[in-house]
Amino acid sequence: MTTNVDVAIIGAGHAGLNAVKEVRKVTDRWILINGGPLGTTCARIGCMPSKVAIHLADTYQIRQRLERYGVGGAEHLQIDRQAAMEHVRDLRDTFVDLVLANTTDEMDEEHLVDGYAEFIDPGQIKVGDQIIEPKAVIIATGARSLVPPEWEGVDGVLTVDTLFEQERLPESVAVIGLGPIGLEIGQALHRLGIDVTGFDHGERIARIADPAVNRAAIDIFQREFPLLVGHEPSISRRDGGFVVRSGENQIDVEAVFFAIGRHAHLKPLHLERLGVPLNDQGMPLVDPGTLKLSKRPIYVAGDAVGGIANLQRAAEQGRIAGWNAVHRRQRRYRNRAPMAIIFSEPNIAVVGRQWHALDQRRTAVAQQRFGPVGRALIMGQNRGLMRVYADRRSGRLLGAAMVGPRCEHLAHLLCWAIESGMTVDRALEMPFYHPVIEEALQDALIELREMLHAKPSRPAWRRLIPRPSSA
């Protein structure tokens, strides 16, 4: 059976669903192809269930601070991890149902095709026994967690794609990879009472480029559970569990959680049949503005493009790809000031230009610790460090890196300021309140202002030369 359509959208995640919204404004001759369960990565396995687990774990962790507040009996509190995971899945299912109710539930069989797509050639797509001939294609197939080939499908090997389906959590876990996912999930599992050890071959955690903030973060999180960084971990099986070695360290664990990255889920599409350039990872060369693949009417959006996953970016790219697929005048995706937030406790955030991209000669750097910040002291969460960067010549804010309480909010304020081209002086004209965490940012900005407006001192030998007389 052959179906002719104006646009075929492959993938019903946030990018694909937003592409549909644009396409259906112009034509009813479109088709949405999706293999596997519906509900988007964010709702089903990503942002939402992971934040439920983190919030639950943080709530249980509060018991360790209750005695200092005069609340007794906290040592008798216990957690039922099986019930906790059922709660995570219940909320996860609610998020998925909300997505489906507002998107695919209203689609009929003519528009929604269940199955995995593959290209036969640039003008034909095969889904099961059906052949689809589209005028334009939008690839929005998302990404999947990386697992070394030798460990794929092995019992006891977990990723964020499979963790939330576990009826029973292991008693001990090695987290391989301490990027955002590894750090968030590792801390959450530790706070749920699981013996966790984190491993990373690099010296950085959570992608923090700023060396001072990275050191502060490692120091903070090592107080909770071991972080073994700087050595490539090796894994082997033992007695139904695993042995993980890193440098001179060796631990036995019941399970291994891989958080070594996610890759675009493009292999089943057989892009090599399109006759377009592919890189060493099998990724196509995509115009970063129009999202168009080579000169063909094929567009790529969302996590399938590669890079750091971001729901807002995926949604906007989906809308642009959808528009471009049905309009002659092409819109372009514009990169905004970057922002990354890790929802650990304390938060980690990086915004704007990162440390390695700064011209150190032209950059002023202010540093503020959260230790003396009043609101942080009240909350009992005053560990952390913020570093803010500004251009010495223009005074404009360039970027920041931080680990500390409520940094998810500080990151937004700074990112908005950077995106709008705000200077340090203008930022300090904004209103601040007391007592709030934002006072840490205010103090950092004041330090920056002093650095930017400080007059360079004359060398000592210049000061010894008398000025000429005006007579």
Oligomeric state of shown chains: single chain
Largest sheet: 7 strands, mixed
Shape: globular
Structural class: alpha/beta
Give the fraction of residues assigned to helices.
Answer: 25-40%
**SS elements, strand count:** 22
Question: Which stretches of 5+ consecutive residues score pLDDT under 50?
Answer: none
How far apart are the first and last residues' alpha carbons, in Å? 102 Å
Number of helix segments?
12
Overall radius of gyration: 26 Å
Strand content: 15-25%
- Whole-number average pLDDT? 93
Structure write-up:
- Helices cover 29% and strands 24% of the residues.
- The protein has 471 residues and is of the alpha/beta class.
- Strands 1, 2, 3, 4, 5, 6 and 17 form a seven-stranded mixed beta sheet that branches. A five-stranded parallel beta sheet has the order 8-15-9-10-11.
- Helix 1 (14-23) packs parallel to helix 7 (311-326) and helix 3 packs parallel to helix 5 (180-191).
- It is globular, with a radius of gyration of 26 Å.
- The termini are far apart.
- The mean pLDDT is 93.
Topology:
Elements (H helix, E strand, L loop, with lengths): L1 E9 L3 H10 L6 E5 L6 H4 L2 H15 L19 H22 L9 E3 L2 E5 L2 E4 L2 E10 L3 E3 L11 E2 L13 E5 L3 H12 L3 E6 L10 H12 L4 E3 L4 E5 L2 E6 L2 E5 L1 E4 L3 E3 L33 E3 L10 H16 L12 E4 L4 E6 L10 E7 L4 H6 L5 E7 L5 E8 L2 H13 L4 H5 L9 H16 L6 H4 L8
Parallel strand pairs: 1-2, 1-6, 2-3, 6-17, 8-15, 9-10, 9-15, 10-11
Antiparallel strand pairs: 4-5, 5-6, 7-16, 12-13, 13-14, 18-19, 19-22, 20-21, 21-22
How would you concisely characterize the structure shown here?
The protein contains twelve helices and 22 strands. It is of the alpha/beta class.
